Amino acid sequence: MAAQTGLDQTRISNGPATSLSPEADSLLGSLARVREASDLERVRVAVLQTGHVAMHWHAHTDIVTWSENAAGVLGLEADALPRHGSRYRALMQADHRDLYEAEVLENTKVDDGDGIEYGLQYELIDPASGNVTVIDERGRLVHGPQGDLQDVIAILRRAHDPSDGEARSGGVIDGETGLATRAAILEGLSRALAAKEASSCGLVVATMANISDIRDTYGPAIVNEAIVATGARLRSVMRGADMLGRCGPSQFAILLKDCSSEQIHVAGDRFVAAIRNDVIETNLGPVWVELTAGGVIVPASEADPAEAFSLAEEALSQAECGVGTSFVVYQPSPQRLLAHSNNRKHANDIITALNEERFTIWHQPIVSATTGDPVMYESLLRMKSADGEILPAAHLVPIAEKLGFMQMIDAMVCQTSLKLLESHPQTKVSFNLSDSTLRNSYAASRILSIVAEAGNVAKQVCVEISHGSIMRESSAEYATITRLRELGCSIAVTGYLREGLSINVLKQVDYVKIDGSICAGISERPDDLQLLKAAVEFARRAGAGVVGERIESQADASILAEMGVDYLQGYLFGKASPDHFHLTLAPIDAADDEVVPGAPASPPVAIQEEVAQPAPHAGTEAVPSEDSGEQQSGEQPSAGHTSQQPGGIDLLKSALSKLDSI
Question: Which of 8, 149, 291, 505 is most exposed, with the fewest beta carbons within 10 Å of its own?
Answer without folding.
Answer: 149
